[in-house]
Amino acid sequence: MLLIKSFRTCHLCHCFKMIASKNMSVAINEPNVVPEHLNNLAKQLNVKSSVLSKVINNHQEKLQFYTESRWLVLFEYLTQYDFKTSELLEMIDSNPDILGVSRQDLQKCMTAWTNFRFDDKKLRQLIVSQPSCLLLDDKQILSRIPKLLSYVGNKQNRLLELISYSPNILFDNWKYIESKLDYLLLNMELGPIQFVTTSVMSSTLFDLKCRHTFLIKLGMYKPRDPKANPNQITGNPSLKKIIETSDKQFAVKVAGVTAEEFFVFKKIFKKQLDEENEDDSDEPEYYSDDN
């Protein structure tokens, strides 16, 4: 479990007390010239000034609203959990909004995450790759994680993998997430090992149902032997091939039909679902972007 190192004397704490609350609204017009106050901040954060300048230039509109003290709070607190300063800068570049999280909320968030005793290194890797994990409040984490664990056999590493591929499962409406997980387990008869390393949870439920049903009608997706291990690989197309492809790629390379044939089926399938009055109120849109 990631333990906060309270005994560490943190230079950043001292910097936080000493530094003035300057807005990060600098525009670096000359590529090789770094303003003096950025050089000073880079030293205090223990990062390269050139990299810090690049991050600020990448997100000037957002970062101009965050004072230097916000940077210091984030670095001071998270380095106590063994995050590298280079990783923290990478996280800000990926999601500048994490600078808006107060120290109190950071503390609650990290306490909630560590409550589940995930592997230290893997949890850090997840947060570095998906900084949005820090935008959750502790109640969301404590409520959502146990529900998700139950769908992956209570295997913590599996859940971290699933979140890394589809962080939206932490934020989306639970009933919608639950519907997709139930469909994978009950209708497609897949085990957790077969879906945690895919982006299926980021796809729409309609696309999942539509493509699965299409393959069934073509005789290309067959029921699993009831006695077989749900994690055992079958002769059915892999979930990655089914869902991580464009409509055209799926039709031609997976289903072995023309794109036009699949497009026609997709329209008919949507109409059938509408007629059956299925509740898709949680579904933002039926179609993927590559119709």
TrEMBL record:
Descriptive protein name: mTERF domain-containing protein 2
InterPro entries: MTERF, MTERF_sf
Source organism superkingdom: Eukaryota
Organism: Melanaphis sacchari
Keywords tagged on the record: Transit peptide
Transmembrane segments: none
Family per similarity comment: Belongs to the mTERF family.
Any one Gene Ontology molecular-function term assigned to this protein's record: nucleic acid binding
Keyword Transit peptide attributed: yes
One family name in Pfam for this protein: mTERF
Gene name of the encoded protein: Mterfd2
